[in-house]
Design brief:
7 helices, 172 residues, elongated, mainly alpha, Bromodomain-like
């Protein structure tokens, strides 16, 4: 019982760090878009922003409310899935970005342009750039690669939480 409570308590703090990291990453994206470089996001960038927003809301909500072991496991599974989807989108952008000159007119672009939340916050959730646009690297890595690394890290951390909670005594 003590290990279960300790694991859930640690997960709560980890969720807070993950949520705050996502908020910081979204702030960075906003700065890159409206700062000196004026880097306009492409549809894949916007889908990744939705991923970061979703992870931030779920993780910060779980951290603020505090949950039992079973709820913590469910939240960790959800966060693992959301982060894995974000990692897949970022990896797709890393692998295919240079060749996707018309990403704003393909299926991905059509999906992003059709999302109703785009109208709620067009300054941040509307795609104005192209997937093949190149921007200066950040510490030697492209923004899509950084995004992949963050999503992959969140996937690994949340997956590890799932494993630890399952080993702590199953689901109650």
């Amino acid at each position: 019982m003590m290990n279960e409570t300790l694991a859930a308590s640690r997960a709560r703090w980890i969720f807070a760090v993950i949520g705050l990291s996502c908020v910081a990453l979204l702030g960075t994206a906003y700065y890159l878009q409206y700062g000196p470089g004026q880097q306009q996001p492409c549809p894949l960038c916007i889908l990744q922003r939705y991923g970061y927003l979703t992870i931030a809301v779920v993780a910060l909500g779980a951290a603020a409310i505090g949950t039992g072991r079973t709820a913590t496991l469910v939240i960790a599974i959800l966060l693992t899935v959301f982060a894995a989807i974000g990692a897949a989108l970022a990896l797709w952008q890393v692998a295919k970005g240079d060749s996707m000159t018309s990403c704003d007119t393909d299926l991905v672009g059509q999906i992003v342009y059709a999302l109703p939340t785009r109208a709620l916050w067009p300054e941040f959730l509307a795609a104005y750039g192209g997937c093949a646009d190149t921007f200066p690297p950040i510490f030697g890595l492209s923004a899509p690669l950084w995004s992949f690394l963050w999503f992959a890290g969140f996937t690994a951390i949340c997956g590890f939480i799932c494993i630890k909670l399952r080993r702590a005594g199953g689901v109650s």
